[in-house]
Structure formats: structure tokens, C-alpha cells
Amino acid sequence: MAQDTNGNIGGDGYDEDLQSLDIDDDVEEIDFHGSAKPPRRARGTMGAAAAAVVTVLVALVVVALGVGGWWMWRHHWRTVDVSVDGETVSARADTTIAHLLADHDDFGRTRGRLLSLKGKVLDKDGGEPVAVSINGAPVPVADYGTATIADAETMTVTPGKDVTEAHTSETRTKRYGTDINLNNGPIQVVTQQGEDGREEVWIGKRSKEEVVHKEIKPAKKLTVQSFAPQPAGKKVIALTFDDGPSQYTGPILDILKQKKVKATFFDLGEDALTYPKLEQRMVNEGHQVASHSVSHPYMPDMSRDDLRKEILTSFADLEQASGTKTRVLRAPYGAFGVQQWKDTADIVDMNVLWSIDTLDWKRPGKKAIHDEVLKNAYNGAIALMHDGGGDRTQDIEALPGIIDDLKKQGYSFVTIDELCEMGGVPKPAQGKE
Questions:
Q1: Mind telling me the catalytic residues?
Q2: Where do the NodB homology domain residues begin and end (predicted)?
Q3: Can you tell me the mean pLDDT for 134-152?
Q4: Taking each helix axis from N to C terminus, what angle separates 276-284 and 304-322, rounded to the nearest 10 degrees?
Q5: Is 35 exposed, middle or buried (0-12, 13-18, 19+ CB in 10 A)?
């Protein structure tokens, strides 16, 4: 192939070659203007849907950033002015109530105190913290560390409440008390037996103080009342004889039988066993038999156990001798006080004293014995005489005149049980023993 001096392909030889190819002369010649280049590769293009998605995402991001920024400003970054009990306080919106209280020393309000069960201050700052209300609504103490002042306009702070210490509890027996009144008359009667109660007791964990929280079962007081019965519309007197039976008892019983008079005999247990027939005669002839102990001791000097043994033995002796039971006592010397009642109220129904003392034990003569009864007689009187414990001949001599002269004054004669029934003395509340 021929090439010219400019490097162009052509010349005669070239033409000849073309002709030999029998190419139509009418073929259009392609001209690249000396710079033939391959066609440019087309770039990828985004569809309309994808473009819309991108646009939305961008918008959402912008909105989120705007909302987040507003929220951070609203709840964290901005400064809030709060009226605290009339005083304006400024702080960041994310300040918690706990931090605000700490920064302002609880606004001068005091915490509650920790108190013992009996009200003693154990810790002046150990009670509840100050109370807070935001916009009029109380805020629970448990929320102080998380609740902020972001929405607060007003805030009220009040002192904390006192708190009572923690405690344990026990159920305990409550011992019964006593109500013993021996000053209203010669007849002392148990009107209510003592009964223990139950109560719940709190014990302070810190102070160890003990207080009764509540009564589970009330205790009942041992109640002993004294009476001076004076039966309405009547004129009665009770003759009583102590320290028997003895050789003087028979003649006294003879006089009482002859005069158709009843009396009460306060007998010694050991003597009753010595004279059982006299004891039985007393009962059979309508007289009342009661105890004057076994051997006439001074009971306040006795221990509880010895006192109870003395009384119970005397009751048993009288039952053995007379065939009748009794829970009625006349203490020797009349010496039977509050402590003796506390020791024996469950075994003794009644202790009987006297209102007329004939002083017959001094052997003043039958006239003195007679006159002492007559000048002191009244409706419901109890006259003290003796049928044992010494020479009782003066009592035997004085007794007929006493009875006759009292009858002339309109008196009738009753036993202690009869006097109590006529005079409205309450029935004894017997113990379980």
C-alpha cells in the first residue's frame, strides 16, 4: 500500500485495489475529521422513586435533629424560673428535686426526727425528708432523685414528718390488778376473781423501749368489797362466837335452842376435830359454821403458802367434823389485809369481822358483856363473843339476858349468811380451786 510523504494512505496503487474490490462508487465516505473516537459509555441514572425516598429521609433527619434539639433545650439546656414558697429560684430544666433541695439546704426546712416508741428523739434528722409539691401536686419522696423541675412553675417545700423507730412485737400475759376496799363494813366479799389478760407489746429495735400496743384480752381485777348490810324494814342482829368448840359450847347451844335463836360459830379446825359432835349439833340446829383458822395464828406474818395451807386445812377440818363445807373465814384478831386477800381470794369467799366487841376475853363480868351488846346494837350489827379459848362462863351467864333484852327492843337473830342475803350483799365470786 502506497503512503505519501504526509503519511496518508492512498496513491495509484490504493485506488487500484479499491477498484479491484468492485465497490460501488456511490458509497458515502465517512469522515471523522481526523479524530476518530469510540462512543462514550452512558452513566447510570436514579429513578424517581429512589429520589423521593432520599428526599424523605433527609427531611426526617432534619426534623429529628430539630425535634431532638428542641427536646434537649426544653428538658435539659434551658433555664427554668421556679417560685419556691414565693421566692424565685433559677436552675437548668434537668435539675432534679433532690439536687435542688441539696443546693438550697432544703430551703431552710427541717427533716423529720426519728423517735423512740415512747417519743424520745433518737436522731434529729432521721425522719422523712422535707415534703415537696410541684404546681400543687405532691411529689413522692421516692421520685426526688428522678423528677426534674422542667415543668415546674411553683414549688412548695414543707418540713419532713417525724418517724417512729422500727419495732418487734410480742404477745404477753398481762397480770391482773386488784381493787380491794376493806373500809366500808365488817363483811368482806370477793365480788370478782382476778383474771390475767393478753396484750401485744412493741419493743423498739434501737431504743429497746417497750410499750403496750394493744390489749388482746382485758385483764379482770381481783375485786374485794366490804359491806355493812342493814336489811330494809327489819331489825336484825347477828350473834357470833369464836375460838370453839370447847366445853363451853354445849351450854351456849342449849341457851340458843331454848331461846330459838340462830348464831354463827367461827371455829378452830383442830378443836372441831376434837369436838365433832358439837360441830354436827351446830349444823343440825340451824347455826352457821365457819372457819377461824386451824390454830389461831397471826396471818399477816405467814408466807403465802403457809397461809393457804392454814385456811384450806381449817376448811377441811370443819367439813370432816361437821359434814358441811364452808369458804367463810374470820381471821384471828381480825387481821386480814390486802396482801392476805391477794394470796387467798381464790379459796376464801368472805372474811367476817364485827361491829360490837364485847371484850369478853377480858372477863369484865356478865353485866359488862350484856351492856356492851345492848348499847351498841343496831339493825345489821354483828356482835363478837367467845365459846372457847379460855374460861367462857361469863358469856354463858350474859347470853340469856342479851337475847331477852334485844327481843324486847324488836330484834330478831340471824346468821351471817342470812344477814348478807337480807342486806343485798353480792354472792361471792368463787375461784376455780
A1: 242, 386
A2: 235-414
A3: 92
A4: 70
A5: exposed
Residue 22 pLDDT > 80: no
**Radius of gyration (Cα) for the chain, nearest Å?**
59
- In whole angstroms, give the CA distance from residue 92 to residue 96: 9
Q: Is the pLDDT of residue 211 over 80?
A: yes
User: Looking at 5-9, 153-157, 200-204, 278-282, which range is the least confident one?
Assistant: 5-9
Please tell me the number of Cα atoms within 13 Å of 431 on its side-chain side. 20
Indicate the SS3 state at residue 39: coil
DSSP conformational letter for 3: B
Residue with cell 363445807: 325
CATH of domain 227-422: 3.20.20.370
What are the residue boundaries of the structural domains of the chain, listed by start? 76-164, 227-422
Helix then strand then coil, in percent of the chain rounded to 5, is 35, 25, 40
C-alpha cell at 20: 479491484
User: Which of 215, 261, 209, 214 is closest to 238 using CA atoms?
Assistant: 261
Backbone φ and ψ for 139, nearest 5 degrees, come out as -105, 125
The CA–CA distances, whole Å, from 164 to 40, 117, 132, 203 equal 92, 6, 21, 12
Mean pLDDT of 98-126: 94
Residue 396 pLDDT exceeds 80: yes
Beta carbons of 394 and 386 less than 8 angstroms apart: no
Alpha helices in 364-415 (DSSP H): 366-376, 393-408
DSSP strand E in 159-253: where? 163-164, 167-174, 178-180, 187-192, 197-204, 210-217, 222-227, 236-244
| 141 three-class SS | helix
pLDDT attached to residue 60: 77
At 227, is the secondary structure helix, strand, or coil?
strand
C-alpha cell at 345: 381470794
Q: Which residues are within 8 A (CB) of 198 and not within 5 positions of it... i.e. 6 or more apart?
A: 171, 172, 173, 174, 215, 216, 217
Q: How many percent of the chain have pLDDT more than 90?
A: 78
User: What is the spatial distance between Cα 205 and Cα 210, in angstroms, rounded to a whole number?
Assistant: 10
DSSP-assigned letter for residue 142: G
User: Confidence band (pLDDT; 50, 70, 90) for 27?
Assistant: very low
Residue 69 clears pLDDT 80, i.e. is over it:
no
Q: How many residues does the chain have?
A: 433
The stretch 413-429 carries a mean pLDDT of: 97
